[in-house]
Amino acid sequence: MHVRLTDDAVGDLETIRAYLEPKSPQGFMRIATAIFTTMAQLETFPLLGREGRVEGTYELAVPRTPFLLIYSINDPLFVDIDRVLHGKQEYPPDK
Question: Could you identify which of 8, 13, 15, 67 might form a hypothetical disulfide with 62, taking C-beta atoms 3.0 to 4.6 angstroms apart as the criterion?
Fold first, then answer.
């Protein structure tokens, strides 16, 4: 399987970078490495996460960070990273 990012996930990563990088470039690199390493694990182990709070999704905590990957498997060749969220963010959002 291959990992691909949705536009929302790309936006989440850009927001994380914009917040963390000016404060601590090394801290940002550590967290970015952890996020992308965890995403890469999903290529081999797509069911690594737990069943998500939103139907049809899975959730996987990024080790040693406060971040959570929200992903889905709607195509037999791809794991879609739907969101990259901080654990304190409200999820799923109220409708």
Answer: 67
